[in-house]
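Sequence, please.
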């Protein structure tokens, strides 16, 4: 009898174990159950500053690249003269390598000093000899963008976030290098981010997401690369969504949420935050966006995230998209039916707005130089009644590198967690819950 009970006990355990096996296997396979919610990371303007040929016998090549850069903001005939006269390259006498450059910044009274290591700018500071003589402000540290990249990659690897949304300007430009694999900026983005990421998980693949990074196209992606060869080489899967050298907008759906990506165009110094796109032009993009939003409504979608480079609202730096090209009214018309969040960049700081039922996050602190912290740029003139910025809340922006984790739950408010690094601060690392 005892042996019979013992055998029955063993059989019961085995049967129970076998019964649980399929459930366990299913649980292990379903790394991200459908309709349970998901998370993603978002940041923008993560490009480094320039890379220059750094050997002293390459000075002529370095200066020519500086001429090409200055032509973005100066007449073609003026740029070579300014570089020759006002740009000073300093080489280490022992290594014969570039260690420092002193040059004009955006205005005649601004002088910027850039420190170099093996051709890369590692730090940049600016002194305005007219507005604030004797005071030099650091506006760029290479370590800031490195920190953002490492943090975002770590969140993907750990499963804290499923994918990355970038608001544009992943690279400085496409001019250097005969092909994207030789371009130092795309190589840097590949080394620090793209090659570090795991392949999409099963749920992402089932939803038709073939990659981990989904960028809006910034003005720097097309600078020196009008055919966006670098972008299409780095993100070949974007062609699945219709991206090409002639079509730089796209959309996709994931877990019942719609993501829309628009393009605000190349940079024009006469209209630095303007919506000057041609692929397609502004009017056609707004019409397409409205069709995608109408489609989302018809399908019962509740949450929509829209990403494009230039900001709808900004109180600092280059300012917001001009009123005659600003899409706010077109977006806000859908706010009564859809929970809409807009991600922007271009102005290299962080600002938050809630206007007419739409949340706007300007996330330009991914690693680029932060000119909005310089004199004359921290608070620009805006019309009376302009929406308040909910991040700095009237204080002047300071040097800060950050990214945001977005947690989406069906039927619940979306959570936004900003993680930041403020060099030189008494509290350099902090986490902030946004829109609380």
């Amino acid at each position: 009898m005892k042996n019979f009970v013992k055998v029955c006990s063993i059989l019961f355990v085995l049967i129970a174990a076998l019964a649980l096996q399929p459930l366990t296997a299913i649980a292990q396979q379903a790394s991200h159950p459908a309709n349970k919610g998901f998370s993603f990371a978002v940041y923008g303007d993560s490009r480094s500053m320039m890379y220059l040929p750094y050997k002293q016998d390459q000075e002529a090549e370095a200066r020519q690249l500086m001429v090409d850069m200055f032509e973005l903001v100066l007449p073609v005939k003026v740029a070579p003269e300014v570089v020759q006269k006002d740009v000073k390259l300093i080489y280490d006498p022992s290594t014969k390598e570039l260690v420092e450059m002193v040059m004009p910044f955006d205005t005649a009274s601004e002088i910027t000093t850039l420190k170099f290591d093996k051709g890369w700018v590692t730090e940049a500071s600016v002194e305005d000899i007219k507005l604030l003589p004797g005071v030099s402000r650091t506006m760029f540290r290479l370590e800031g963008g490195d920190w953002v990249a490492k943090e975002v990659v770590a969140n993907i690897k750990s499963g804290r976030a499923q994918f990355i949304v970038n608001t544009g300007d992943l690279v400085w430009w496409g001019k250097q290098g005969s092909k994207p694999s030789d371009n130092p900026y795309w190589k840097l983005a590949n080394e620090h981010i793209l090659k570090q990421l795991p392949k999409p998980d099963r749920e992402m693949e089932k939803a038709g997401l073939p990659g981990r990074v989904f960028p809006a196209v910034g003005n720097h992606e097309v600078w020196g690369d009008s055919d966006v060869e670098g972008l299409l080489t780095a993100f070949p899967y974007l062609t699945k969504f219709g991206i090409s050298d002639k079509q730089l907008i796209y959309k996709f759906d994931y877990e019942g949420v719609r993501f829309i990506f628009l393009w605000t165009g190349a940079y024009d110094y006469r209209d630095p935050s303007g919506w000057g796109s041609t692929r397609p032009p502004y009017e056609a993009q707004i019409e397409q966006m409205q069709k995608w939003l109408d489609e989302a409504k018809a399908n019962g979608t509740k949450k929509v995230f829209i990403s494009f480079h230039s900001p709808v609202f900004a109180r600092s730096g280059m300012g917001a998209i001009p009123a005659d090209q600003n899409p706010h009214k077109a977006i806000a018309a859908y706010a009564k039916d859809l929970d809409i969040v807009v991600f922007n960049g271009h102005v290299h700081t962080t600002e938050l707005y809630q206007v007419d039922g739409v949340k706007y996050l300007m996330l330009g602190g991914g690693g680029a130089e932060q000119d909005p912290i310089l004199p004359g740029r921290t608070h620009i003139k805006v019309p009376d009644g302009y929406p308040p910025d909910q991040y700095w809340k009237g204080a002047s922006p300071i040097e800060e590198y950050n990214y945001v984790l977005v947690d989406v739950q069906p039927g619940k408010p979306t959570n936004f967690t900003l993680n930041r690094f403020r060099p030189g601060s008494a509290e350099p690392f902090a986490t902030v819950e946004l829109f609380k």
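The chain has ten helices and 17 strands.
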